[in-house]
Write a structure and sequence with these properties.
single chain; alpha/beta; TIM Barrel; 2 domains; 11 helices; about 30% helix
């Protein structure tokens, strides 16, 4: 029997399919390869991946080897997807890559050497075009191509990079990275290329190449880190009201007297907190949705939070929307001083999960 005070996380797979269609239309012919790392951004890589396969996706990206193995098991023999592992080939992992038919994304010369030592293998190459985080330097890529032995036994099916400022269309870093990528791509004229994740997909045709790798926008996060009306909310987090209270001027609310009440205020105590993924830093600036209106998020504790409800008709057991169509993902992220990605992956397994739509 479920807990009557449990938060509820509803994951709308039809909304996911809608967002995939938006990205496919924006990609204009480039393949859309969903990124399902961190268990499908916390929403379940298996049901999410199965629905996206049904919508036509045939290539997928994960971060960890174990994520790739789990996704391959979910797909089974009837869905022969190409699954790229962004971590690349770690020491001793080649037999597991082969067993699950996974493609490592190689980002360093030692990884390339490990792949060669493991025998013939399909791989992708990651180029650092200015993100500074991971990838072969362009000079290293050039040296690989000029050598007759350095890539022997490796079937390089994709050359890729990653934009560091794709959410800022006017940032000149984007054009610098594009220029570097074009120069490196020319070294692999017959190999498919990919530069863009969600944000880059919306930067225009120059950034799309053969394949785009959307993650957050599949789940409703805007490519500019603000709500985008073209995209639907996939995750809705709601929780029941535990109690309704009236606070008086001079009352202190929560730990450390961090919130002082300066006018008579009616509030609802809600059965969700940062354990459930509502980041504590969103207090004060965050907004919830209840009784047809936006409500201010006053405090967030481990297992409960408090919202203003003014004169709304409310009773214990009524659900408050903390994340969803009326409480946008990007708005909650901004209130917490973070990004939509973190909001999703912090959603707790404590919340009751309900999937809508066919996987």
């Amino acid at each position: 029997m479920g807990d009557p005070a449990a938060a509820r996380l509803t994951i709308d797979l039809d909304a996911l399919a809608h967002n995939h269609a938006v990205l496919r239309a924006e990609a204009k012919g480039a393949d859309v390869a969903p990124v399902l790392k961190s268990d499908g951004y916390g929403l379940g890589a298996a049901p999410v991946g199965l629905r996206l396969w049904a919508e036509g996706a045939r290539s997928f990206f994960v971060a960890r080897l174990s994520e790739g193995e789990a996704l391959r098991a979910a797909f089974g023999p009837d869905r022969p997807a190409t699954i790229y592992v962004l971590d690349g080939l770690t020491e001793g992992a080649a037999p597991r890559f082969a067993a699950a038919n996974l493609t490592p994304v190689l980002s360093s010369l030692p990884q390339i050497g490990a792949a060669q030592a493991a025998g013939p293998m399909s791989v992708a190459l990651n180029i650092d075009t200015g993100m500074g985080r991971q990838g072969l330097a362009p000079d290293e890529a050039r040296a690989l191509v000029q050598s007759t032995d350095r890539l022997r036994g490796l079937n390089v099916g994709l050359v890729m990079s990653h934009l560091g400022s794709g959410a800022e269309p006017e940032n000149p870093r984007n054009t610098r990275q594009l220029t570097t990528f074009l120069e490196t791509k020319a070294l692999f004229p017959k190999t498919r290329a990919s530069l863009s994740a969600s944000a880059g997909t919306f930067l225009g045709p120059d950034y799309r190449f053969d394949l785009v790798r959307p993650g957050i926008s599949l789940f409703g996060g805007g490519p500019r880190e603000t709500p985008d009306p073209r995209l639907k909310a996939v995750a809705t987090l709601s929780a029941p009201i535990l109690d309704i209270r009236t606070l008086r001027p001079g009352d202190a609310l929560g730990y450390g007297e961090s919130v002082r009440i300066d006018a008579t205020t009616r509030v609802a105590v809600v059965a969700a907190g940062y354990t459930d993924g509502v980041i504590r830093a969103a207090k004060g600036a965050g907004r919830a949705w209840f009784a047809g209106a936006v409500r201010r998020l006053l405090i967030v504790n481990m297992d409960m939070l408090v919202i203003e409800i003014d004169d709304a008709d409310a009773a214990p057991g009524d659900h408050v929307e903390l994340l969803g169509e009326n409480a946008p993902l990007d708005d909650l992220a901004a209130a917490a001083g973070t990004v939509a990605h973190e909001i999703l992956v912090r959603l707790s397994r404590r919340a009751e999960r309900i999937y809508l739509g066919e996987a």
